[in-house]
Design brief:
Layout lengths: L2 H27 L7 H4 L4 H36 L6 H32 L2 H12 L7 H5 L3
Helix pairs in contact: 1-3, 1-4, 3-4
């Protein structure tokens, strides 16, 4: 594969992964438009207290991780389109992005497991159904390349 095609494939893969992870998380944190997620799940008062206590730190960590990912995504794009292409710089940014994506996915899974532990079976089913029903969204790169 040509180096330019390889760089494009790498960029496409990174952007696709970032888009998918961001869409899943944003949609998982949001509730249906008319209802907040705790209301949609019909949380009891004690559950709401635990939910909000777990949600704040998670959102802060996720936001910080998203900012770090964005910084490395920008670095990757700059490295790919630099006047002189440095394959080591490209690989370093790609590796950082992959590591941060894995950490963000683990964070999301930990949060969902914590939420699961707070919910009764009917609430878990509602939350799982909501997450499963979230529509897939095209990545930013796909959107830019649409005819």
């Amino acid at each position: 594969m040509k180096p330019s095609a390889l760089r494009f494939a790498l960029l496409f893969s990174v952007l696709l992964n970032l888009g998918v992870v961001a869409a899943i998380v944003v949609d998982a944190v949001r509730a249906p438009v008319a209802q907040a997620l705790p209301d949609y799940l019909a949380l009891r008062a004690d559950q709401r207290v635990r939910w909000h206590a777990a949600e704040g730190p998670f959102l802060a960590q996720f936001s910080a991780a998203s900012r770090r990912l964005e910084a490395h995504r920008t670095g990757l794009i700059r490295a790919i389109f630099a006047d002189t292409v440095d394959p080591a710089a490209i690989e370093a940014e790609r590796a950082q992005i992959a590591e941060l994506q894995q950490a963000q996915q683990r964070l999301m899974i930990e949060q969902l497991l914590a939420e699961r532990a707070m919910l009764d079976p009917a609430q878990r089913e509602r939350l799982a159904g909501l997450l499963i029903d979230q529509p897939g969204v095209p990545s930013a790169l796909e959107a830019l390349h649409r005819p």
